[in-house]
Description:
The protein is mainly alpha-helical and 87 residues long. Helix content is 56%, strand content 0%. It is globular, with a radius of gyration of 14 Å.
Amino acid sequence: MKTYAAFLRRWEPEEAGGRAHPAVEAFVETKLARYAEDRDYPARGGTSQLSPLIAAGEVTIAECAAAASTGSPEQRAAEVALRARVA
Length: 87
């Protein structure tokens, strides 16, 4: 029962209006530009930490890619790395 209660406190369904999940937005804004360099070093905090959300079906790879596509040239280069990683 405690596990389910903790899940309900943390679960954030997709917002209406086409906005990306807050975790995806945070990744794009703070980590995406350095993702290609930092992803293989968990101690750097460069991993996306989106896998649990993707596995649970809360976000999709397409949603992550769409959010990443709106960024700077550095972020778009990191998007290519992200797509190669999850393919």
